[in-house]
Amino acid sequence: MTTKVAAVARVAAMEAARSRLLVVVVVTIAVALGALAWASTGDGSAVGRVRAFLSWGAGWVELVLSLLTVFLSTTLAQALRDGRLVPFTAGPLPRGLLPLGWWAGVALVLALLVALAHLLLWGLARVMVRAAPPADRPAAALVLSSRGVARPPRPDPRPAAAAAARQAAALEQAGELADLTDAQREQVLEWLERAARERTRAVARGRAMAWTLDGVDPDRAADRVWLRFQYTVRDGTGQQAAAAPRGRFSVVPEGAAGVQLEGRWRGGAPHELAIPTWALEGRSRVQVVYENRADEAAAVVFPEVGVELLYPAGTFGGNVTRAGLVLLGRLLILAAVGVAAASLIDGKLAALVVLFVLTVGAGREFLLDSLEAFTGFGAASPVLVNLLRGVLLLLPDLASCDAAALLSSAERIATAEVLRSLGLDGLLRALGVLALAAVAFGRRELGAIR
């Protein structure tokens, strides 16, 4: 039985290998990555060039291979139509296992392409760092690393929402909202809530704000970690400014003295401050305190994520490998959908099904959030919204891990993301789709295909 499935897989792999489209895709990926490595500018610095290359390059590879998967997986329909698979359907192999064999062959080709593309991505990034000016090379080499990230917990949004509701009620009682429509009142409430949330993240002159970060676990050989932050600056009139107010960060491990970092950091730009690893004293819980020591009236407003502590965790090659495995998991579930659809319907219709899953899966979380307050169906809205939500939850989330962004920022792609993409989507969910296809295909009248 296994031998027969492997035979179908070999046919599928050879079918893909003989395709001219496969050659075009390989050449396109290689040429595009080479062009990006040569022409990427980013912010003009060596670091910016490498980051731009990794971001655009990984994104391009994902796009091209996703579209290629649509074609490779749906070629099963044509193979059934022209009779090339008749010997397998008429032999000892149960017909229901034929989609599994075809998927396995496509999966093998996709795995090789993913490995080749990410090997090229890894190699060109290293070449770019070596070609950087000597003075910029250490900073550019930092991009070719893998760093874990410790973040503070997200702030509770309920106090800000309650404060905004009280303020809106006061305005309503004062008659200031009397001439507004219901939609305009909702907009006012949203604006008040955003303003309330911003006030909780604002540090006025002479004030301080603290965050607690858990899970700091640098490699034993690491000599430094990094404090990463970004904020906006508001002047005395409340307007946003690009000023660089004086401030001080205190990084205090639990039960230790910690270190202080003082300086001026421009608003609107990301910053990373290096801290010697010995300052953590082996602690995994760290408190970070920021003091606004501006000479003029200026408030510093941090984003909701607050500050982040980055620490070395693994290698750049390992991170590129994890990015490839995340992409492979996504391609495998797409291939399973394509093979299942092609075993039951026409190849062109099957391709549309895969494109639908690809498009909706890439925006699944956005669509789920959009359904929260949707009432466009009137009285039937609750039923239809729950139905749509159920359909969305059945589809894979193809955008949960932005591997391109993580690679370009030298952040370690979590093992949990690899397991979710490759294990849950690429294997378990894909095999579930193929099992349903096997049942349906086993009952299909093959004589009707021609």
Describe this structure in words.
- The protein has four domains: 243 residues, no CATH class; 45 residues; 111 residues, Jelly Rolls, CATH 2.60.120.260; 34 residues.
- The protein is 56% helix and 13% strand.
- The chain has 14 helices and twelve strands.
- The strands form three sheets. Strands 1-12-4-9 form a four-stranded antiparallel beta sheet, with no helix packed on it.
- β5 and β6 form a beta hairpin.
- It is globular and about 80 Å long.
- The model has no long low-confidence stretch (mean pLDDT 86).
Looking at this protein, list some descriptive labels.
about 450 residues; alpha+beta; Jelly Rolls; 4 domains; four-stranded antiparallel beta sheet; 12 strands
**What is the strand content?**
5-15%
Overall structural domain count: 4
SSE string: HHHHHHEHHEEEEEEEEEEEHHHHHH
General shape: globular
Tally of helical runs:
14
Q: Give start-end ranges of low-pLDDT stretches.
A: none
Layout of SSEs?
Layout: H1 2-17, H2 20-39, H3 46-81, H4 86-90, H5 98-131, H6 137-143, E1 147-150, H7 158-173, H8 182-200, E2 202-203, E3 208-213, E4 224-229, E5 232-234, E6 240-241, E7 246-253, E8 259-264, E9 271-276, E10 286-292, E11 299-301, E12 308-312, H9 316-342, H10 347-362, H11 364-370, H12 381-394, H13 403-408, H14 415-442
Antiparallel strand pairs: 1-12, 2-11, 3-10, 4-9, 4-12, 5-6, 5-11, 7-8, 7-10
Helix pairs in contact: 1-5, 2-3, 2-5, 3-5, 3-6, 3-9, 3-10, 5-9, 5-14, 7-8, 9-10, 9-14
